Amino acid sequence: MKRIYSTIILLIALLLVNNTHAQTVVKDYLSVSGPISFDNINYDLSWSAHPSNNYFKHEYLPKGDDVEKYKQMILFEFAQGDFKAEDAVNVKVSELKELKKKNPVVNYDVMENKQSGEYILDFLVSENEPDGKHLSIVERNVYRFKQVEDASGRRGVLLFGVSTRAYGDDITKFFASLKNNRYDMINSVAAYTIPVIKIVN
Question: What are the extents of the domains in the chain?
């Protein structure tokens, strides 16, 4: 199944990405090979892409998980260029506003850290069963946007994100947990120590 969420930073760079996962060789373009430890779970680099000169994307999964039916995924995206974290957030919010016109499940919240200039975007998207009457997937994403300079001096916007999914019968429980524990993930993403990246072409 294709990814529900679209690539954020790539839109800022006004580029086009093919988000297929047919690739068999996974290259560490960001010098963040993993495993990554987040909330006491280790995530291995499972997929990467470099579809243009200034855009790189990594996805990380717990060992044994399937990229097409994951429960939780870690993301790193980097776009080199002269734009701000706020620009990336604004593009994504515009996209979510359009999605919400057709899908009432879509929801989002933007939080700004004025001291660091970072932003967190917390958003919810979904996909229906073929009959259009029932939800098949609900996906919650917490994205942290940060302007960075990599170890070799390349500047751009880095996205660190956590994507969590529920399927079928687990969706009701997922919504209940989200209602009671929403800020746990936001706080974890905000507190995560983002590594210094180094681009490897």
Answer: 9-191
